[in-house]
Amino acid sequence: MKMITDMREQVRGKSVLLYSGGMDSLMIDFLLEPDVLLNISMNSNYDKRERESFPEGKDIIYLDDVLNLGQYERDDAIVPNRNAHLVLLASHYGEHIMLGSVSGDRSFDKDEKFYLRMEDLLNHMWQEQHWTEERKFKIESPFKDKTKTELVREYVQQGGSIEELLTSYSCYEGGEKHCGQCKACFRKWVSLVNNRIDTPSDYWENNPWESEFLDDIKNPVYNGKWRGKEDKDILKAMILKGNWKV
Length: 246
What we know:
Helix content is 38%, strand content 8%. By secondary structure, the chain is an alpha/beta fold.
């Protein structure tokens, strides 16, 4: 019983960042310094490669053999309901749970409604009852109002390491290099270009500006209408690299 009580007190009031090898969680960790970094293996295509990119000396809690969400991974690397699973597990390690989502993320398990509903669910399950004292949860993406370009700018301005930024891994393919073609690669490329951060010549397997992800935004571009801030960042990066003209 003492061990259970101790665990409960260890997590009360703690902040937990769901930590991956991507640049978003790297920057949020640097800017906000959460109490707990939690990395949960999902047995996805890119799990192993992401972990190889973690900065040395990080105090990270690793959860392995708990979820096998890789079996549900779609061809486009989307794992349906992924963040619901991750948030539920994170609730065992703290009460303020943070996800690395930014403006431009379009999945509904990364939006405000999702966070509020997961808060309601956890607060309902963890209200005072025969087996537990009351716990109150807050779930958020602290930089949801910023694009990757804006978050990189703030990170660099606050003294964040560009080397660690480049060491971070954002690719659905899981290869040694960034493939340069997937959505994650392209969005990373845009944020680096817009902040005048050069990548090594062999950083990308292919040219990111040839990414098939561009097909997803062509219609708004041709109509002269942009869906949001990230689309404007994309246009800016393409113009800076001389790939588009206005």
